[in-house]
Write a structure and sequence with these properties.
Blueprint: H1 2-6, H2 15-36, H3 42-47, H4 54-65, H5 68-81, H6 87-90, H7 94-111, H8 116-124, H9 126-159, H10 163-212, H11 214-222, H12 235-238, H13 243-265, H14 267-274, H15 279-295, H16 297-310, H17 312-319, H18 332-340, H19 345-381, H20 387-412, H21 418-442, H22 448-468, H23 485-510, H24 546-563
Protein name: Na+/galactose cotransporter
Family: Belongs to the sodium:solute symporter (SSF) (TC 2.A.21) family.
InterPro entries: Na/Glc_symporter_sf, Na/solute_symporter
């Protein structure tokens, strides 16, 4: 697969394009060097000293997610499935982001924990903590491989280097600025990368829409396939033929389990909000991030839909006829750039793609080094060492994770549509964690034993459903269940959630709960309400109030869902 990628199309960049890209890389490394000067403790390295304003952490919050999944994965989904892909944003992201800001961030930030697994340790003890820390670490290494693979693909398309060489070069660039500046370097680069990505993809979308005749032109050209222009029931997206069960898969599997599991318990995202300078800022970070998140589909999914219309390779791939030139749906936005953008604009667009993949990989690596250093190494290997020792461990973990990601990039290269692979991973790792977390946060009776047994049972259920589906595991899948693609991932996530809840309830009835005094700040009903808000929150203007901002965001996302139903 890697060799095949070397033999496909090239992007025809000129000296001006390369100059823009080179300047961007200089700025990225420079930010890492400057951020290094601010590091005097492990808290500075792993959580930016909890000193960043809400607008910075909010943009970093969304930019950390604006990686390979958003750009290549969602444009691939747009090309393959059309308007139904909007569900990943307006049902599968924004509501959970608002919930995180309003309900869950007070528990994370107020408890003073440094990671989500640390919160699990305080609530459930070392059993659930170890399971969560290990599963999270594995997930980040696998997802970092996705971002690294696509980052290397861009280098390969530009320079024609073999993909394995491109992988190593791309890894070194990301490694350098994270190792130098820790989370601060990652966050400040993510803020820069957000603006670069928007500046790169907005002109591409405008040019592509003009080329195809606007939204009406898209509707005219895909009219024979109405599923492409309708978000419900999304049977093509889910691979579930029955409209009712397809809707259930989207609402429950994606909109509830996968979405809330990712946005509310995934430390990659939560880490950005935890770097805020106050509880109010931490709550606003995901809420502010939800507003640009609503409109990203217009510069990611729509270009993918247009690529399926005007790019011969993608059009042929979609119809199953003609020469595809070795292209996959993952190449949709690259091919659109190749055919529509003049030199100069091409350089900006390529820099935007590079920015998105580096943002995604940096988020994975920075979250991994925090969990590895604090939750695994400090907790189970070397306790009670000085602060600088753990900062050093974090830097070593960063190097090791980057090297491992070069290997996990191979797995990503085997998928024509990376969303299938990514949603499978989320079903394994995020869905059971969300079930355990949400049950433990609202049910004080839940026991420590139930915490880790529920996680293990939920993960096993997701793996089993994926293995029995048609293609979630590629050739290793049995096809016993008539589920394929992202529908299999939704079903696996739903199974993980339900099994985790059931096992947790059963085990709780058979084991002894903790003393309620130990659960203050960890269980909603046992936490004083005044500790969940800033003392000065009542004096904040409406545009700084987390609940008011969340209400506005909810209204907007409902309107968008109605407009594109």
């Amino acid at each position: 697969m890697l060799r095949a990628a070397d033999e496909t199309f090239r992007l025809d960049a000129d000296f001006f394009d390369y100059t823009i890209i080179a300047l961007y890389f200089v700025v990225v490394i420079g930010i890492g060097v400057l951020a290094r000067r601010q590091i005097s403790s492990s808290l500075d390295f792993f959580l930016s000293g909890r000193s960043l304003p809400a607008w910075v952490t909010g943009l970093a919050f969304i930019s950390a997610n604006l990686g390979a999944v958003e750009i290549m994965g969602m444009s691939a989904n747009g090309a393959q499935f059309g308007v139904a892909t909007f569900h990943y944003f307006w049902i599968g992201a924004v509501p959970a982001m608002l919930f995180l800001g309003v309900v869950m961030m007070p528990f994370y930030y107020g408890s003073g924990v440094r990671s989500v697994p640390e919160f699990m340790r305080r609530r459930f003890g070392t059993g659930a903590h170890l399971v969560n820390a290990l599963s999270f670490s594995i997930a980040q290494l696998l997802i970092a491989g996705i971002n690294l693979y696509l980052l290397a693909t861009i280098v390969n398309r530009l320079l024609g280097w073999p993909l394995w060489v491109s992988l190593i070069v791309a890894a070194i660039v990301v490694l350098s600025y994270i190792t130098l500046g820790g989370l601060s370097a990652a966050i400040y680069n993510e803020v820069l990368q957000f603006f670069v990505i928007v500046a790169a993809l907005t002109p591409l979308t405008v040019i592509a829409l003009h080329k195809v005749g606007g939204w009406q032109g898209i509707k005219d050209k895909v009219q024979p396939n109405n599923e492409q222009l309708s978000s419900w029931p999304g049977t093509d997206l889910t691979g579930i033929a029955d409209p009712f069960w397809s809707t259930v898969g989207i609402v429950f599997g994606l909109g509830f389990v996968l979405s809330f599991g990712y946005w509310t318990t995934n430390f990659v995202e939560v880490q950005r909000a935890m770097a805020s300078d106050s509880l109010s800022s931490a709550r606003r970070a995901p809420i502010l991030g939800a507003f640009p998140k609503m409109f990203i589909p217009f510069i990611v999914i729509i270009p993918g839909m247009i690529a399926a219309i005007i790019i011969p390779e993608i059009s042929n791939l979609k119809s199953g006829q003609g020469d595809t030139g070795g292209a996959t749906y993952n190449d949709a936005i690259l091919l659109l750039m190749r055919d529509l953008l003049p030199n100069g604009m091409l350089g900006i667009a390529i820099a935007g793609l590079l920015a998105s993949f580096m943002a995604g990989m940096a988020a994975n690596i920075s979250a991994f080094n925090t969990v590895f250093s604090y939750d695994l190494w400090q907790q189970y290997v070397k306790k009670d060492r000085n602060d600088s020792y753990y900062t050093g461990v974090g830097r070593i973990a960063t190097v090791a994770a980057t090297v491992i990601a070069i290997g996990t990039a191979w797995f990503a290269s085997n998928y024509d549509n990376l969303m299938n692979y990514l949603q499978t991973l989320f079903g394994f790792f995020n869905a059971p964690l969300f079930a355990t977390f949400i049950l433990g946060m609202f049910w004080k009776r839940m026991t420590a034993t139930a915490g880790w047994t529920g996680l293990v049972a939920g993960t096993a259920a997701a793996v089993t459903v994926a293995f029995l589906s048609e293609d979630a595991f590629g050739s290793a899948s049995t096809g016993t269940l008539e589920l394929s693609g992202q529908g299999a991932s939704f079903a696996a996530a739903g199974a993980a959630f339900i099994v985790d809840i059931l096992v947790s309830i059963i085990v709780t009835t058979m084991t002894r709960p903790r003393d309620e005094k130990e659960l203050k700040g960890l269980v909603y009903s046992l936490t004083p309400k005044e500790s969940l808000v800033d003392p000065d929150s009542a004096a904040l203007p409406w545009y700084q109030s987390p609940t008011k901002l969340a209400g506005i965001g909810l209204v907007l996302v409902i309107i968008l869902n109605l407009l594109f139903r």
